Amino acid sequence: MREARAEDARTEARRLVTSLLGTERPQAGALLREAEAALGAGRVEHCVELARGAPLTRRSTELSAVAALLVGTRDLGEEWWRRPRGDKLPAPDEALAAATAIDPWTDLTVLEMLAAWIADDAADEVWGPPAASADLNSWQAEDRVGLPPDAEPGRRLVVAFDAGGRLDALVVRRPDGELGSNLDFASLRYSRPAEAQWSWGVAAGLGPHRLEEDPDPYAEPVDGDAARTLRAWALDNGASAGQAGEPWRTRGDVVAAVDRVDWMWRSGEWFAWWRAVSALVDGDADRLAARLEDIAEDSG
């Protein structure tokens, strides 16, 4: 069942990335060439610098954000980057140059922030500014959003729930005569930049995604003992020999194996394995030691 869901997600991601970016199997180099044509060489250079500076386990996420910026710039125009935003927000160009996330996106990286920004702007362009926002961690449908003064039964309100994510709330009259609203989960949709971000990440996978670096960070050796322990754990817990691959010697070996293993679609104990493997790839010795202890305790 888990494997079927994983394949369904990959199939949908390939469909979307083909529709939005014209390729079923996205590659970093092709993405950046397309982005340069839409965003301009200077902006893409900044994006590449930020992607190179991220941990290798986060590089796919950063490149997925570039995919969102590519599609969003094509849809909204290159002037989106220069458009003044009033007193609270700088123009996106200024935010990219400063290389610092700003409110309300301080929990994101700079590229993730810009991707969320353009995804929301693209959603507003298509469906109009949202009347309210809702947290979909709760699936309660009734009266989740406040109503505007001119609300009337039958009216649909656009509700934001995520970067580029929208759904409708239907205004209804309750039995007591008061107006209320019901979220229409069937109306859930995402803007094209948000779809590009998700689909590129799923279709391209964790990597390796090389960005013309010398030395190649994926060629750096990893801790041999930890690599053997984590590879053996994967084999003992359901990964095939083909998925685990040859013994892991470099960061690139580990990244490629993680991509093949599809740990996110496996049972819960694989999350501890992922935390250890990500520490191995990122070269975080203290975090790696702690995560290996966690795995040993769980196995014992």
Automatic annotation (TrEMBL):
Protein name as catalogued: Uncharacterized protein
